[in-house]
Amino acid sequence: MAYRWKNDLSPGDVTPETVWVNRRRIMAGAVAGAGLGLAGLPGRGVAATGDALEPNSYEDITSYNNFYEFGTDKGDPVKYAGALTTEPWSVEIDGMVERPGRYDFADIMAQMTVEERIYRLRCVEAWSMVVPWQGFELADLLNWVGVRPEAKYVAFETLYRPEEMRAQRRGGGIDWPYREGLRLDEAMHPLTIMATGLYGKPMPNQNGAPIRLVVPWKYGFKSIKSVVKITLTDSEPETTWNMLQPSEYGFYANVNPNVDHPRWSQARERVVGGGLFASKQPTLMFNGYEDDVAALYEGMDLERFY
Ligand SMILES: Nc1nc2c(c(=O)[nH]1)N[C@H]1C(S)=C(S)[C@@H](COP(=O)(O)O)O[C@H]1N2
Ligand SMILES: [Mo]
């Protein structure tokens, strides 16, 4: 069951959360009965283990956030990200590409096929959620602008607009704008998406409106929000958390229960919304996407390239 949203989704067309959750329940049942169908593909809502993923509530996903441009508390983004204006919005794509330019968000959306992807999100701080995103494959965008053969990495930047992003006005120890990066093969992997909404609604500001990266097998900080710039390059780009604390946050940041953070274990994770007394669940290698992505890192020392 490859459920596809039309890319001309308007606010009136969105599925209310209750209907959405019920549909998922029905689908989960159907998958269990049908064995391996299209819905069995990892990345389309079904974990590598074959379990259907039960998404967190819209409330959890949109009120417990990391978006340091608005403050460091989990509740800051929902309080302050309303100040962010997301229209007009464009994404500059430059560097080693055939057709560099500043692309209007609406023009990008007109070219891309938006679909649903239900992914685990594992923060490096050892909590996790399951999020029903809408988005399109980053590979489709990169192929549309044309990647030149010498490109080896993709660098991303978040908006820098201190008038609207209150923590940028204070500095806060971060060298703004927030920056992230991927190796080109990671960026082209079919699990890597640019997300433009969740639960059938346009992306809420606190989750990185109007367009953000989602790389489900890496720690959450790689999934950079409110992207305004994408650069194809031949050298490993500088990334925000790595620049801040290189001994704690590597460039790769693949979820790995066997490599602990210097200050805490990564073996288990707290599921957001699980309640005060819920026990932690084991963290999965590559966040449960091992079958899909392990080949990208064959022969690599995952302790050294953390
Ligand atoms: N620009 C920007 N992107 C960001 C962050 C941030 O502070 N600024 N935080 C990251 C971290 S640490 C996580 S865990 C995820 C959280 O995404 P969510 O709030 O949608 O769950 O966003 C990531 N992307
Ligand atoms: Mo995070």
Automatic annotation (TrEMBL):
Top-level taxon in the UniProt lineage: Bacteria
The reaction(s) this protein catalyses: L-methionyl-[protein] + a quinone + H2O = L-methionyl-(R)-S-oxide-[protein] + a quinol; L-methionyl-[protein] + a quinone + H2O = L-methionyl-(S)-S-oxide-[protein] + a quinol
GO MF, any single term: metal ion binding
Binding locations of Mo-molybdopterin: 65, 68-69, 123, 158, 207, 212, 223-225
Pfam family membership, one: Oxidored_molyb
GO terms classed as biological process: protein repair
Similarity-based family: Belongs to the MsrP family.
The record's free-text note on cofactor binding: Binds 1 Mo-molybdopterin (Mo-MPT) cofactor per subunit.
Documented EC number(s): 1.8.5.-
Cofactor(s) in the UniProt record: Mo-molybdopterin
Function according to Swiss-Prot or TrEMBL: Part of the MsrPQ system that repairs oxidized periplasmic proteins containing methionine sulfoxide residues (Met-O), using respiratory chain electrons. Thus protects these proteins from oxidative-stress damage caused by reactive species of oxygen and chlorine generated by the host defense mechanisms. MsrPQ is essential for the maintenance of envelope integrity under bleach stress, rescuing a wide series of structurally unrelated periplasmic proteins from methionine oxidation.
Protein name: Protein-methionine-sulfoxide reductase catalytic subunit MsrP
Keywords for this protein: Metal-binding, Molybdenum, Oxidoreductase, Signal
Oxidoreductase molybdopterin-binding domain sequence ranges: 85-241
Quaternary structure and partners: Heterodimer of a catalytic subunit (MsrP) and a heme-binding subunit (MsrQ).
